[in-house]
Amino acid sequence: DLRWIKADCADRILFPSRATMLAVLKHSPQLESSKCFYVHNGVDLSKYYPRESKQLYNKIGLSEDLPVIGIFGQLKRIKGQHLFLEMAKNLSYLGIKANFIIVGKDTTTLQGEYEERLKKMARDLGVKDLVHFLGFRSDIPDLMSMCDLVVVPSLKEPFGRVVIEAMACGTPVVASAVDGILEIFKNGEGGLFFNAGSVSELTEKVKYFFDNPQWWELQKRKAYEHCKMNFAQEIHTSKIEEHISQVIHSRKRCQ
User: Fold this and answer.
1) Predicted confidence band at 108 (pLDDT cuts at 50, 70, 90)?
2) Cα 104-230-49 angle, rounded to 5 deg
3) Is 252 buried (19+), middle (13-18) or exposed (0-12) by CB count in 10 A?
4) What is the SS3 assignment for 188?
5) Which of the two residues, 173 and 28, has the higher pLDDT score?
6) Any residues with CB less than 8 A from the CB of 9 and at least 6 apart, and which?
7) Which 8-state DSSP code applies to residue 123?
8) Which residue, 147, 171, 216, 230, could crosslink 166 as a Cys pair with Cβ 3.0–4.6 Å?
9) Across the chain, what does the average pLDDT equal?
């Protein structure tokens, strides 16, 4: 609902994805659809780009001979970190060895309750020694470059900026087929989708990368190229400027 916005005074309203725009229009019938447009977020390729990050292995305490699978974002249930832990258990059960990192802090629940539940869950699932909780970090591009795969198991996501950030670092993704994320890439364009909430399908899609190492390497290159071609910050800025220009010209015609 956009009751907090004086929508009737706006010439144009921009959303980060078509999915978000349609959802808002559905629940905010007072909005004029003709005023609503969407512009996908962009990523600054001068900050997010493939780089050598192997030096982080020792600092974090990772096994250098194992691939790194990461999840990035605020720790809260809607982001799906609990699904990530179940996936880690399933992969371990299948004999697949990897380093798992969880990057982010719980700032939404009282005394970090969700974060504590995740840590207890890791112990109960028997993956405590495999999963590294890194908390809040200021070196996200380095960590994303270090990862061989980023998992985005969000249950809801207006757009999914973490997806394009990972891709910009040359890291493929396995992401929930939900909301705005579906507008970022197609299967095989630098990642794979799975049905949101399905741990078994998430495990299957991650396992596919391990079963096809050459294809995995190809996805790393595709991820970067796809992001560069479609989500560079310059592209986003240009589209915003175009909308501003259209509004200005429209107002001039009405004067």
Assistant:
1) confident
2) 50
3) exposed
4) coil
5) 173
6) none
7) H
8) 171
9) 93
Three-state DSSP class for residue 83? helix
User: Could you read off the pLDDT of 189-227 as tens digits, one per residue?
Assistant: 999 999 999 999 999 999 999 999 999 999 999 999 999
Token readout for 103 is: 């990057």
Q: Are the CB atoms for 79 and 178 separated by under 8 Å? A: no
From 208, 177, 202, select the one nearest 86 (Cα to Cα): 202
Span 178-192, mean pLDDT?
Answer: 97
CA atoms within 13 A on the CB side of 90: 16
Kindly give the interhelix angle for 81-93 and 113-125, rounded to the nearest 10 degrees.
Answer: 10
Q: Which of 72, 174, 182, 54 is nearest to 133 (CA)?
A: 72
Per the listing, tokens 């994320």 go with 181
- β-bridge partners, 70: 101, 150
Evaluated on CA atoms 167, 85, 63, 97, the torsion sign reads negative
Distances (CA, A) of 47 to 66, 70, 149: 26, 19, 19
CA-CA distance, 47 to 40, in Å (whole number)?
A: 18
